[in-house]
Amino acid sequence: ILGLFNLIPVPPLDGSHVVASLLPGTVGERFRRIGFFGVFLLVLVMQYGPFLRFFYFVVDALMYPFEYLINAFI
Q1: N or C: which end of the chain has fewer CB within 10 A?
Q2: Could you write out the DSSP letters of every residue in 11-33?
Q3: Could you tell me how far CA 57 lies from the centroid of its own chain?
Q4: For residues 27-62, b (16+ Cβ closer than 10 Å) or e, as one string?
Q5: What percent of the chain has pLDDT over 90?
Q6: What pTM value is reported for the model?
Q7: Are 35 and 11 in contact (CB under 8 A)?
Q8: CA 38/CA 32 separation, integer angstroms
């Protein structure tokens, strides 16, 4: 769950570094400069109910194959 959460493209999370490297030079630099405000944005997004439901849906969808694999060996 932490790995998926860390890929959200909001600075200071790692997903923002991926997005910044894919953007053209000047746009990527501007995106990197907003890193300080990303912390506040991240706190606000985490309080937003639909985001939490979507995030848990993605986590559940990704966990199903792993649970199946683990149960196959048990």
Answers
A1: C
A2: TTSHHHHHHHHHS-HHHHHHHHH
A3: 13
A4: eeeebbeeeeebeeebeeeeeeeeeeeebeeeeeee
A5: 0
A6: 0.51
A7: yes
A8: 10
Q: Is 24 left (phi over 0), alpha (psi -120 to 50) or beta?
A: beta
Integer CA distances (angstroms), 16 to 27, 33, 63, 65, 67, in order? 13, 11, 24, 27, 29
- d(CA 3, CA 37) in angstroms, rounded, equals 22
Residue from 45, 36, 49 nearest 5 by CA: 45
CB 35 within 8 Å of CB 12:
yes
- pLDDT band, residue 33 (cuts 50/70/90): confident
SS3 state at 8? coil
Q: Structure tokens of 5?
A: 């959460």
